[in-house]
Design goal:
Layout (H helix, E strand, L loop, with lengths): L1 H79 L13 H6 L2 H6 L8 H10 L10 H9 L4 E4 L8 H8 L4 E5 L3 H13 L4 E4 L5 H11 L8 E4 L1 H6 L1 H12 L3 E6 L20 H6 L5 E5 L4 H10 L6 E4 L7 E7 L4 H14 L5 E5 L3 H13 L4 E4 L5 H12 L5 E4 L12 E6 L6 H8 L9 E7 L1 H10 L6 H13 L5 H6 L8 H4 L4 H4 L4 E5 L1 H16 L6 H8 L5 H6 L7 H13 L3 E7 L4 E7 L14 E5 L18 E6 L2 E6 L9 H11 L19 H12 L5 H4 L8
Parallel strand pairs: 1-6, 1-7, 2-4, 2-5, 3-4, 5-6, 8-13, 9-11, 9-12, 10-11, 12-13
Antiparallel strand pairs: 14-17, 15-16, 18-19
Bound molecules: adenosine-5'-triphosphate (ATP), magnesium ion and zinc ion.
C-alpha cells in the first residue's frame, strides 16, 4: 500500500510537472504568436503613419498651390477693374499694403508732388532717360516723401536710379553703402559721365582724398550729391561717423541707401559680417529716410534686414521678378566631360555665333579647364575667378564688355555689378547651389530686354559635389534640393518653380512658352517608377546589412549590374540607360525614399546614400511613385511612351539626348527622323549608338541607322561647322 502510495505520489507529481511544462509550452508558443502579431501591427502602424505624413505633405502642397491660384485669380480680377493704375501693375507690395492702402500707394505714382518737375527734368537732362520703368517713380516719390523703403527689383531693372535721382533733387548728400569697391567704381564712373558729382571712401582711399570727402560732407556749398562707402568704413571709421553726425545735425545728410541689402542677413546668400553693424545708421540718424535695395531677398530675409537695420516697418516695393524675355532650359549633362564641353561649344558656335555670353562653373579649377577646352574648340573664352590677379580680372571684364572676347567662363566671383546689356546667353556648366543664386546668375542675360537664353546643365555627380560643399550651411541642403527639383521637375513651368522663391505666382501664360517644359509640354509623360524604387531600396538595404557605404555613383553602378558578381545575384539590376537610372535615383532622393549621409575626413567630405524616411512605403503593394519624363521630341532624356523603360528598348544616344525606339516598332518611328535631323542640324558634335545598351540581336540596325541619319541631315549641315573658323585669342 505504501509502495502503491509512493508510486501514485510519483505518478501524480510526474503528471503535474508534465502538465506544468505542457502549460508552459503552450504559454510560450502563444507569447511568440502575440509578439509576432505585435511586430506586424507595429510595422503596419508605422507604414500607415508614413502614409498619413505623405498625404499631409501632399495636402500642404495642394493647399499652397490652391492659395497661389486664388491669389492669381484675385489679381486677374483686380487688373480687370478699370480704376486700377497701369504703372503699378507689376507691383506686388503685399507688406506695404498692410501699412498703406492701395489707393494711398497709387498716389505715389503721380507727378503732382512739389519735387515732380525737378525729378522729371533730371530724369531727362541728367540721366538722359525718356521714362521711368515700373515702380521707379513710386520709389522716388516715396523716398522724397521721407519714407523708409525696401525696394526689391530684379537685377538690371534700374534700382540705382531710385536713390540717385532723389539724391540730385535734395539738399546735401546721399550716403550709399555698397559691398564691393568695383561696384562703387562703376557707379562713380557712370555718374561722372553724366556730370553728377559723386565720391567714394574705401580702404584704399588716400588720406588726402578722405580728407576732401569728409570736409565736403559738412560743407553746405559742397557739390557732392552721393558719397559711396563700404560697410567696413561705417563699422570701423569713427572719423566718418563723427562727420556723418555733423552733417546730420546740419541737415546735410539727405538720404541713406543700402545697396544689396540682403547682405545683412545670414539667410540671404551673400552675407557680409560688416552689414550686420549698419543698424547704427538708423539709430544715430533716425530722421534720415533709408532705402534698402536688393534683387534677391525673400520675405524672411527682408524681415531679418529690417531688424538688423533698425528700420521699423519700412514700405516694401516688389517689382515682378518675371523676366519675360529670358528662355529657361535645362539640359542633361553628359557624365563624359569631353562630351559635355563639346555640347556647350557647339551651342556657342552655332546658336550663339558672335554673341556675348557667360558660362558659370563650379570651381576655379573648372573655370581654367573649361575655358581652355572652349579655346581648343576655337571659342574666345577666358576664365574669371576669385583667385586671379585683380588686373587680369578687370582686363577680362573690360575685354568682354567691349566684345573683344565672346565668353567669360566664371565662378560666382563674376557677379555683382556686371551690367552688360547684350548678354545673349548664360550657360551653367554646373547647377547653382540654390534657385535664388540661379535666378541672380542667369539674370545677367538679356538686360536690354531682347530675348536671351538661360541654360543649365544638370549633372548627376554635380549634385553631390555641391551637396558636400554646402553641408555646413544651415539651409544649404534644403536650397540645393529645390535647385535639383527645378532641374528635374518637368511637371511644371520652370518659371512657376522659380516664382515661389520670390513669393510670386507666374502662371504658364506669364511664361508664354519661354521655358523648355512649357514649350515641350506634349513630349512629357508620367512614368510609374515604383518598381525601380523597390529595386534601388533593396540595394541600399543590402549594403546597409553588409555595413557597406554606398556613394551615389556606386549605387547607380550596382543597380546597372556593374558591381561584383556575388552582389549581382542578390539584387535586381536594371536595363535602364544610365541617364534614366540616375534620374530615378535623384527622384527617390528628392522624394525622401533615399536620403543623404555625410562622412567627414580631415581632407574631404563624402556623400553616401541611405534609406530615406519614406522607404518603408515601398513595401506596401498599393503605394506608387511616378515621375514625368520626356517621351517624344528632342532635348533632354527621351524615353519611349508607356513606360517602355525595359529590356526591349534600343536607346539611341544622340548627343546627350536619348531617343528610344522600341523593338519591332522601328518603321512606325519614322516620324522621329525629322526630329533627329533637326537635332543633328543643330548639334553635330557627337553621334553614337550606345553599343553597351544595344542588344546584340539588334546590332544589324546600327550601321543603316547611322547612314540614314547622316543622309537626312547632310543637306542641312551648317557651313560654319565645316569651315575652319579659327580665331586667335588676344
Ligand atoms: N528708366 C529707365 N529706362 C531705361 N534704362 C534704365 C532706366 N532705369 C535704369 N536703366 C538702366 O538699366 C541698367 C541697370 O540699372 P541698375 O544698375 O540700376 O540695375 P540694378 O537694378 O541696380 O541691378 P543689380 O541688381 O544688378 O545691381 C543701367 O544701365 C541703367 O542705366
Ligand atoms: Mg544695383
Ligand atoms: Zn514655362
Amino acid at each position: 500500500m505504501n509502495e502503491n502510495h509512493t508510486i501514485t505520489q510519483h505518478l501524480t507529481s510526474w503528471l503535474l510537472s508534465e502538465q506544468i511544462s505542457l502549460r508552459n509550452m503552450d504559454y510560450g508558443g502563444r507569447s511568440s504568436d502575440v509578439q509576432g502579431e505585435l511586430d506586424s501591427v507595429e510595422a503596419e502602424l508605422e507604414l500607415v503613419e508614413l502614409q498619413i505624413a505623405d498625404l499631409l505633405q501632399k495636402q500642404t502642397e495642394l493647399t499652397t498651390r490652391k492659395n497661389a491660384l486664388l491669389q492669381e485669380l484675385e489679381e486677374a480680377c483686380d487688373a480687370a477693374q478699370p480704376s486700377s493704375s497701369s504703372s503699378s501693375s507689376s507691383s506686388k507690395s503685399s507688406r506695404a499694403d498692410a501699412v498703406m492702402s492701395k489707393q494711398e500707394m497709387q498716389r505715389f505714382d503721380s507727378t503732382d508732388f512739389p519735387w515732380s518737375k525737378e525729378v522729371e527734368q533730371h530724369l531727362k537732362d541728367s540721366f538722359h532717360l525718356s521714362k521711368f520703368r515700373p515702380l521707379q517713380l513710386r520709389a522716388v516719390n516715396l523716398t522724397l516723401s521721407g519714407k523708409d523703403l525696401f525696394l526689391v527689383m530684379p537685377t538690371g531693372r534700374g534700382k540705382s536710379l531710385c536713390y540717385q535721382l532723389p539724391a540730385v533733387c535734395s539738399k546735401g548728400f546721399t550716403l550709399v553703402v555698397t559691398p564691393l569697391v568695383s561696384l562703387m567704381e562703376d557707379q562713380i564712373m557712370y555718374l561722372k559721365s553724366i556730370d553728377v558729382s559723386a565720391v567714394m571712401l574705401n580702404a584704399s582711399s588716400s588720406k588726402e582724398h578722405a580728407k576732401t570727402v569728409m570736409a565736403g560732407m559738412t560743407d553746405p556749398k559742397s557739390p557732392f550729391k552721393l558719397v559711396y562707402v563700404t560697410p567696413e568704413k561705417i563699422a570701423k571709421s569713427k572719423l566718418l561717423m563723427s562727420r556723418l553726425e555733423k552733417a546730420y545735425n546740419a541737415n546735410l545728410l539727405s538720404h541713406i541707401a543700402v545697396d544689396e541689402v540682403h547682405c545683412c542677413s545670414q539667410w540671404g546668400h551673400d552675407f557680409r559680417p560688416d552689414y550686420k553693424l549698419l543698424g547704427i545708421l538708423k539709430r544715430q540718424f533716425p530722421k534720415v529716410p533709408l532705402l534698402g535695395l536688393t534683387a534677391t531677398a525673400t520675405s524672411s530675409v527682408l524681415k531679418d534686414c529690417e531688424k538688423i537695420l533698425c528700420v521699423p516697418q519700412p514700405i516694401t516695393l516688389t517689382a515682378s521678378f518675371n523676366r519675360t524675355n529670358l528662355y529657361y532650359e535645362v539640359r542633361i549633362k553628359d557624365s563624359d566631360i569631353d562630351a559635355s564641353i563639346s555640347d556647350i561649344a557647339s551651342l556657342i558656335k552655332n546658336r550663339y555665333k558672335d554673341q556675348s555670353g557667360i558660362v558659370y562653373v563650379f570651381s576655379q579649377k573648372d573655370a581654367e579647364s573649361v575655358s581652355s577646352e572652349l579655346q581648343k574648340r576655337d571659342i574666345l573664352a577666358y576664365p574669371y575667378h576669385g583667385n586671379m590677379d585683380p588686373n587680369d580680372k578687370s582686363r577680362v571684364h573690360r575685354k568682354w564688355t567691349s566684345n573683344k572676347i565672346q565668353v567669360v567662363v566664371a565662378t560666382v566671383a563674376f557677379g555683382m555689378g556686371i551690367d552688360k546689356p547684350d548678354v545673349r546667353f548664360v550657360i551653367h556648366h554646373t547647377i547653382s547651389k540654390s534657385i535664388e543664386n540661379y535666378y541672380q546668375e542667369s539674370g545677367r542675360a538679356g538686360r536690354d530686354d531682347s530675348p536671351a537664353d538661360c541654360i543649365v546643365y544638370f549633372g548627376f555627380s554635380d549634385i553631390f559635389r555641391i551637396s558636400t560643399m554646402v553641408v555646413m550651411e544651415n539651409v544649404g541642403q534644403q536650397k540645393l534640393r529645390q535647385m535639383v527639383d527645378y532641374c528635374q521637375n518637368v511637371d511644371r513651368c520652370r518659371r512657376s518653380l522659380m516664382a515661389v522663391h520670390f513669393d510670386e505666382v507666374w502662371d504658364d501664360e506669364g511664361c508664354n512658352q519661354m521655358c523648355d517644359t512649357c514649350r515641350h509640354a506634349k513630349d512629357f509623360t508620367s512614368v510609374d517608377i515604383t518598381q525601380y524604387g523597390r529595386q534601388v531600396v533593396q540595394i541600399v538595404e543590402l549594403a546597409a546589412s553588409m555595413e557597406e557605404k554606398l556613394t551615389p555613383l556606386k549605387l547607380v553602378e550596382a543597380w546597372m549590374g556593374k558591381g561584383p558578381a556575388k552582389r549581382r545575384k542578390m539584387i535586381q539590376t536594371t536595363t535602364l540607360p544610365r541617364l534614366q537610372a540616375e534620374a530615378v535615383i535623384v527622384r527617390l532622393l528628392l522624394q525622401e525614399y533615399l536620403r543623404e549621409d555625410f562622412s567627414f575626413t580631415p581632407y574631404t567630405t563624402y556623400f553616401y546614400v541611405k534609406l530615406g524616411r519614406k522607404a518603408p512605403l515601398l513595401k506596401s503593394q498599393t503605394h506608387t511613385v511616378s515621375m514625368k519624363m520626356r517621351t517624344t521630341g528632342s532635348g533632354s532624356a527621351v524615353v519611349s511612351k508607356g513606360c517602355s523603360l525595359s529590356l526591349q528598348t534600343v536607346p539611341l544616344v544622340f548627343n546627350h539626348d536619348i531617343i528610344v525606339i522600341e523593338e519591332g516598332d522601328f518603321k512606325t518611328q519614322a516620324q522621329l527622323w525629322p526630329k533627329l535631323n533637326q537635332r543633328l542640324y543643330r548639334n553635330i558634335s557627337f553621334f553614337q549608338i550606345s553599343q553597351t545598351l544595344l542588344p546584340s540581336k539588334l546590332l544589324w540596325l546600327y550601321f543603316p541607322l547611322c547612314a540614314l541619319v547622316l543622309k537626312t541631315a547632310s543637306p542641312r549641315l551648317p557651313l560654319g561647322d565645316m569651315n575652319e573658323n579659327r580665331r586667335v585669342p588676344g
